Amino acid sequence: MPMPQVPFDDRGLAYGDGIFETVLLRDGQPVLWDYHRARLEQGCQRLNIPLPSAQQLVQTWQSPPTSALEVLKLILTRGSGGRGYALPEHVEPRLISRRMPFAANAERWQGGVCVRLCHLRLGHQPLLAGIKHLNRLENVLARQEWQDSRIAEGLLADSSGKMVEATSMNLFWSSNGVLWTPSVDHCGVAGTLRAALLAQGVIREGTLSIDDLPHSERLWVGNSVQGVWPVSELLDAHDNVLATWPMHNAPDPLQGEAHRLLGYREFPASESK
Q1: Dist. CA 122–CA 101, nearest whole Å
Q2: How far apart are CA 48 and CA 57, in angstroms?
Q3: Which of 69, 101, 133 delimits the end of a domain?
Q4: What is this structure's pTM?
């Protein structure tokens, strides 16, 4: 199905004036939908964009599924109009969506991944922190820093040297047997899987500096589509090895809880790429 055409004067295209969600569909039904809707609502409140009705949102996944697993991307812009940055007198938001078949990468669940620290540092803007707004230029620039396919993700710190997230995933670590994730009060995205794990008391919010990162007991990256990848190797911004972690045969406490929430079995061959 072709994507709908976005008008030249759409404010999401011109200014990044909008928000988006990327939702895992299992057998045609959204996973962690309450958390996605809550973040969508928060984003609308922050940007002062009217929230689509529940019926409008449900319609985006009402067609029959094309595969057991799909990814639904929702993009909501303020619509068209206004003079320059000034808002239009009557806001008519534009909601577009697309569904694509998806296969989770179970090899990364089991074998772990290599990640690297990025040169780029995230700037602080509390008004935009947490929400998934359309202006992701920091993430785009960070992702340009490596081309090596062996590197699965890049880790981002803020301007004060505190770890925040990965380019498209949240960051988790273990210290003294406790599972942690960085705060996203000043910058970064509050992932929906992260929110569910916090709500269930599986993880806590904490602070982790760049210097302390290599000394974590264990390290993970994860989101509500890919699940949780344990980190086996950490590189610095020049691709020098900073730390390695052995992969364990024992059940992974964070991955187990996260994949239960997402409906993933431990290492299903049928869901690997």
Answers
A1: 32
A2: 18
A3: 101
A4: 0.94
Q: What is the pLDDT of residue 266?
A: 55
Q: What angle do CA 58, 68, 32 make, to 5 degrees?
A: 45
**Ordered alpha helix ranges (H), 21-85:** 33-47, 54-58
Give pLDDT < 50 ranges for the chain.
1, 267-273
Q: Report which secondary-structure segment, H or E, holds 146.
A: none
Given 60, 70, 77, 132, the catalytic residue: 132
Structural domain containing residue 257: 106-271
d(CA 245, CA 181): 18
Q: Which of 22, 73, 138, 145 is catalytic?
A: 22
Residue from 21, 165, 233, 257 carrying the catalytic annotation: 165
Q: Give residue-wise pLDDT tens across range 203-237.
A: 999 999 999 999 999 999 999 999 999 999 999 99
- Check residue 250 and give its pLDDT: 73
In a domain, 159, yes or no: yes
Calpha distance 24→44 (Å, rounded): 21
Is there a single domain that holds both residue 139 and residue 258?
yes
Residue 179's nearest CA partner among 233, 216, 132 is 216
Q: Return d(Cα 227, Cα 258) in angstroms, integer.
A: 7
pLDDT score of 248: 81
Q: Kindly report the number of other CB atoms within 10 A of residue 218's CB atom.
A: 18
Dihedral (C-alpha) 211, 130, 202, 69: value to the nearest 10 degrees? -110
Is 273 marked active-site? no
